[in-house]
Amino acid sequence: MCLAVPAEVLSIENDIAVCRVDRGQTTIRASLMLLPEPPQIGEFLIIHAGFALNILDREQAEESLRTISQDANCPLSTGTEG
Amino acid sequence: MSFDILDRFGDPQLCRNVLDTLARELDGELRFMEVCGTHTVSIFQSGLRSLLPEGIVHLSGPGCPVCVTHESEVNAFLDLAGKDGVILTTFGDLMRVPGDNGRNLKKAQADGARVRVVYSPFDTLKLARENPDDLVVFIGVGFETTAPTIAGTMKMARQEGIRNLRILCFHKTVPTALDALLSDQDIALDGFILPGHVSAVIGVEPYRFIPQTFGKSAVVAGFEPLDILEALLRMVEWRKRGEARVDNTYTRIVSEHGNSRAMDVMYEVFEPCDALWRGLGLIPGSGLEIRDGWVEFDAKREFDIVIEEGPALPGCKCGEILKGVKRPDQCPLFGKACTPANPVGPCMVSTEGSCAAYYKYKVD
Amino acid sequence: MSDKVLLDYGSGGRASQRLVSGLFLEHLGNEELDRLNDAAVFTLSGRTAMSTDSFTVDPIFFPGGDIGSLAVHGTVNDVAMMGAIPRYITCGYIIEEGLPMDDLERIVASMGEACRHAGVHVVSGDTKVVPRGAVDKIFINTTGVGEVIADPEPGGDRARPGDAVLISGTIGDHGLTVLGTREGLDFEAKVESDSAALNHLLVRLVQELPDVHVLRDPTRGGLATTLNEITVSSNVCCELVEDDLPVRPEVRGGCSLLGLDPLYLANEGKFICVVPEADAEKALAIMRADPLGTDARRIGTMTDANPGKVVLVTRLGGKRLLGMLEGEQLPRIC
């Protein structure tokens, strides 16, 4: 259940963020009223039914990938951007 | 942060390596249940299900809010559709859910009922503003992920002085249902993959009882293939060590205590109540109802709606499937009397229902 | 003329005549149509392909097209999928009273433009105006005929194990565009409908490659549903490779947001082409040489593994079944 997608904050106005979904130019407006603190432009939000539920934690994402790579005994492949 | 980092959670090479590790480490059958329809779909859609080692048995639990919406709740909103002066708004998910006598919202719409599919409950505010002489009733289904968005919408409506919005509140909460499920004698499983986006709101703490009381493991996981594989790997490792634990592998989204602001908004408007789950029956304290202070939004009170247990659907094994006792294809109705075009039970209704996913994605 | 379409314009009287001569003939006129006889008379030689389709798209104007051009493209493409050169079409308009005259003119002008582009003549037409609420703004039916030049003509039952499965470009553009312009969905996607007449490209294809097995446009129901029709008719299995499916990031993003699958979204300017393995590269070269086929790709192969089924090999190397679309795809949150 609970489809929620990551999206990048492009702009913020009146507690509403315009966010980019995926690499293309599809944008969605998301209410920020459920976030404990406002996001920065360029940060990633997780959006469900038009509301941002949380800010994505980049360091944790990288940490998870490191853990998984170790578990798999597989050196982390490098993406096009760190 | 970039989309590249997120994409790496689906990296095929890394997935193959984790799958190899998983196959190597597996020391006997591991029965796991995911309690989130998005996990169900992700496991099938990515093709992961066809790649998991044979000993890993995948069960889909009661994690699709559409599927667990009780038949009397479905009949309640179908009764509202077509009432004079009512515009019913809903997430698209509910449009084909069958009620009694083959009714559903699609058919109600064809009969002239004003039913609008919205992406966000926020959109209902606009509808309410544009139709001041009608009552706009939003069907509130969903777990702790969705309930705060409805609560937030109600707060906005109050702020704006919108008086013609009602919420038909059928929200349910996940940890209470897991507790009930685990208390059931029938259930045979090693661990849960916990719903990532419910946990984004409630955190990890509410699941601590799972190992403490029931001795089972549980992992909060994201929805990419590597998220799911990593969760499985943890469960295998703990079992080998004879441990039962709760852990969080979705740390990029989920923190120990969740999102306090979303919880505050949710509990400002809603309070726990007993709830009927389709296939599972009454689970004390597993629902959310509108607090007295927000009664002006309550469609249940406005229309005197009472939700009661009715007779079970004959032949339908959804109850056992939701508990992980039976696989979808072990139900006598599966693929015959019960198909996505003509669903009998809840698990076949939603795209995320375990039977629907099984029917739709599984290559024979 | 009034600034709104009135019931009078469908009465058959003078008001109707004014609408026909002042608007329809203005944009669609040609030698056959201008004679305004009860029926068109023309000469077609040899085997003939004929197809009809009704267009009820909502909204009637969308990025990349409108109901007028779509009504031409849809029918022209259906005729051309049979290896035929579309020549003539008819159009029937059913208009809701009160439709702004400007909107109607835009639609008819766009239809005229699409006909010129596709090289077809409208030879017969009809206009009805119905009371408010009897239709939603405007519905158009078109019927097209054309000369079949392929021998044998491509058909859904001609796919064979070993055939290559090609697609002429990105999928889901039209479906997501139309969804995105509907009310109540608060997202914006920089996508346009791919609505286009494919006949010139298709004619080249069947002229240069005499053994094209199947040509189909994956309109409603999308790529997955159309491929299912083909695999059932031909009793073969279609194995698609997920990584090879061309989907614009905008469409992918919009789909993830709304819980939709681009494989089931409508396309209006794409075609599936099934050819013997040996012809695959040449077919792709012909497609890519045309502006409407620059993104053409091979997406899979017909096999005899699971007859009547479409199987997707995922990025991870797993497999999943792609069934037929059950009903209209609805945005979902869970």
From TrEMBL, chain A:
Membrane-spanning intervals of the chain: none
In alphabetical order, the GO MF annotations are: carbon dioxide binding; iron ion binding
Q: Name one GO biological process term.
A: protein maturation
Output the Gene3D superfamilies linked to this UniProt entry.
2.30.30.140
InterPro entries per UniProt: Hydrogenase_HupF/HypC
What are the coiled-coil residue ranges?
none
Q: Which SUPFAM superfamilies match?
A: HupF/HypC-like (SSF159127)
Protein's name in the database: HypC/HybG/HupF family hydrogenase formation chaperone
Native organism is Pseudodesulfovibrio senegalensis
Organism phylogeny? Bacteria, Pseudomonadati, Thermodesulfobacteriota, Desulfovibrionia, Desulfovibrionales
TrEMBL record, chain B:
- InterPro entries tied to this protein: Hyd_form_HypD (IPR002780), HypD_1 (IPR042243), HypD_2_sf (IPR042244)
Kindly list the biological process annotations in GO that this record carries: protein maturation
Cite a single Pfam family from the UniProt record: HypD
Q: Which gene encodes it?
A: hypD
Protein name as catalogued: Hydrogenase formation protein HypD
Keywords attached to this Swiss-Prot or TrEMBL record, sorted alphabetically, are:
Iron, Metal-binding
Q: Does the keyword Membrane apply?
A: no
Molecular function GO labels: 4 iron, 4 sulfur cluster binding; carbon monoxide binding; iron ion binding
Q: Which species is this record about?
A: Pseudodesulfovibrio senegalensis
Family from the record: Belongs to the HypD family.
Superkingdom as given in the UniProt entry? Bacteria
UniProtKB/TrEMBL annotation, chain C:
The record's Gene Ontology biological-process terms are:
protein maturation
Q: Where is the PurM-like N-terminal domain?
A: 37-148
What residue stretches are annotated with the PurM-like C-terminal domain?
Answer: 160-311
The superkingdom of the source organism is: Bacteria
The similarity annotation says: Belongs to the HypE family.
Q: What is this protein called?
A: Hydrogenase expression/formation protein HypE
Gene name, please? hypE
